[in-house]
UniProtKB/TrEMBL annotation:
Protein name per its UniProtKB record: Phospholipase B-like
Organism: Prorocentrum cordatum
Keywords, ordered alphabetically: Signal
Superkingdom of the source species: Eukaryota
Keyword Signal: yes
Signal peptide annotation: 1-28
C-alpha cells in the first residue's frame, strides 16, 4: 500500500542561528495503542499550553539559537515533525489571530516615530529561522532516503485524530489516486485563501475545481459539503466564495517525500511573503506534483469552518481512546488544524480529549486490581 520505502531515523545535529526544537511522533501502529495515545496527549498538551502570544524579537535570543532536533518514525514508514521555540512549549510561528488582523510579532515604536522592527519584519525573520531548521531536517533525511515520507505539522494548533500509520498511508494514497496519480505531496485545504489575494489566483485557474470534484467524489461527499460548517460572516477573518468551497492550500499540514517537500519550500530562503503564499503558488504551478485534501479526511482545517459551535469533527471514544471523528465522512480524521478563528474550537476539542488520560488510568487500575 505504501508508495515509498521506509528509512532509518536520522540522528541529531546542530546548526547556528536557530531557536527551534523538532518534536517528532512516537511509534504507533494502531488506534488505542500506548504510542498512539501518548502522541494524542502530547498534541493536546501543546494546544492547551499555547499562549497565542506575539513572536519575540529573534535578535534578542542569541543564546537560544543553537538548533536541536530528533526524529522518531511512525511505525516503519512515516515521520511526523513540528517546530517550536527552543526552551519553551510555544510555537515558532505567528498566532492564529493573525488571520483576522492581530499582530503576529513583537514590534518597537521608537521615540522618533519609527517602527523598527515592525510585526511583519519579526514574523518574516522567524519564517526564515523556521525554514533553516526545516531545511536542515529535510537534508538530513534526504541523506538517508530521499523518498522518506514525512508530515510537517504546525506546532501548538494541531490535534492528532488517532489514525494508525496504515490509515494515514491509505488516505494519502487515496487522495493522490483521486487527483490523477502523479502527485507525491498532499497538503491540507481550507475554505478561505491566505493571503486573501490568492482568491483571485484561484479564480483564474481551471484545474482546481475539477481536482476538488474528483477528490470529494472519491469520498462520496456532496459538492457543497462545506456549507453546513462554513462561517464567513466576519469580514476581518477573510473571504469565502459565494458558495463556500474548501479549496485553498494550507501549508500548516504537508505530507510527502522529504526531497519533494524540500524542492517545494526551498524558495523560502529568500521569500519576502508568507510561507502559505509560497505553498499556494507552488501548488498552482505544479498540479502534477501537489494536491490538496479537499475532503478533510487526512488533514482538516478549521478556519471559517465552525458555524454556531458546529465543527466538521467531534471527539468520540473509539477502541477505548478519544479520537477526532467526522460524521460527514464516517471516519476518523488524522490531523485537525485549528488555524485562524478555528483555534477556539480546537481548544475545546483538546479539553474533551483530556479525559482520555483519566480513562486509560481507570482502565489500568481495573486491570491491575480487578475492579
Amino acid at each position: 500500500m505504501a508508495r515509498h520505502s521506509a528509512a532509518a531515523a536520522a540522528g541529531g545535529m546542530a546548526a547556528p542561528a536557530l531557536a527551534l526544537l523538532l518534536a517528532a511522533l512516537a511509534s504507533a501502529t494502531e488506534l488505542g495503542k500506548e504510542g498512539s495515545a501518548a502522541y494524542a496527549d502530547e498534541m493536546r498538551l501543546r494546544v492547551q499550553a499555547n499562549l497565542q502570544a506575539v513572536l519575540p524579537l529573534p535578535w534578542d535570543r542569541i543564546e537560544d539559537r543553537d538548533y536541536m532536533w530528533k526524529t522518531t518514525d511512525l511505525g516503519s514508514t512515516i515521520s511526523i515533525a513540528s517546530f517550536k521555540l527552543q526552551g519553551t512549549d510555544q510555537p515558532a510561528s505567528p498566532r492564529p489571530s493573525v488571520r483576522w488582523g492581530a499582530k503576529g510579532g513583537k514590534e518597537i515604536l521608537h521615540y522618533n516615530g519609527v517602527l523598527d522592527p515592525s510585526s511583519e519584519l519579526t514574523m518574516l525573520a522567524w519564517q526564515k529561522i523556521r525554514w533553516a531548521g526545516l531545511k536542515a531536517f529535510l537534508q538530513a533525511q534526504m541523506a538517508v532516503d530521499a523518498g522518506k515520507l514525512v508530515v510537517i505539522s504546525s506546532y501548538g494548533d494541531v490535534l492528532y485524530g488517532g489514525c494508525s500509520e496504515e490509515v494515514i498511508m491509505f488516505k494519502y494514497n487515496e487522495i493522490i489516486a483521486a487527483s490523477g496519480g502523479t502527485q507525491t505531496i498532499v497538503m491540507a485545504a481550507e475554505v478561505s485563501p491566505w493571503p486573501w489575494s490568492l482568491g483571485w489566483r484561484y479564480s483564474r485557474t481551471n484545474f482546481t475545481s475539477f481536482r476538488r470534484a474528483d477528490v470529494i467524489a472519491a469520498y462520496s461527499l456532496s459538492s457543497t459539503w462545506e456549507s453546513s460548517f462554513s462561517n464567513c460572516t466576519d469580514p476581518s477573518a477573510g473571504p469565502c466564495d459565494s458558495t463556500p468551497k474548501y479549496q485553498y492550500a494550507n501549508a500548516g499540514l504537508i505530507m510527502g517525500p522529504v526531497s519533494d517537500i524540500y524542492e517545494m519550500l526551498e524558495g523560502l530562503e529568500t521569500y519576502q511573503a508568507d510561507a502559505n503564499q509560497l505553498a499556494n503558488d507552488y501548488y498552482l504551478k505544479h498540479p502534477g506534483t501537489v494536491t490538496l485534501d479537499y475532503a478533510g479526511g487526512l488533514f482538516l482545517s478549521l478556519h471559517n469552518m465552525v458555524s454556531s459551535g458546529g465543527a466538521p469533527v467531534e471527539v468520540q471514544e473509539i477502541n477505548g481512546t478519544r479520537a477526532l471523528y467526522s460524521s460527514t465522512l464516517g471516519q476518523t480524521v488524522c490531523f485537525v488544524h485549528g488555524n485562524g478563528n478555528g483555534f477556539a474550537a480546537l481548544q475545546d476539542m483538546a479539553s474533551q480529549m483530556d479525559s482520555s488520560v483519566a480513562l486509560r488510568k481507570k482502565s489500568r487500575f481495573a486491570k491491575w486490581f480487578g475492579a
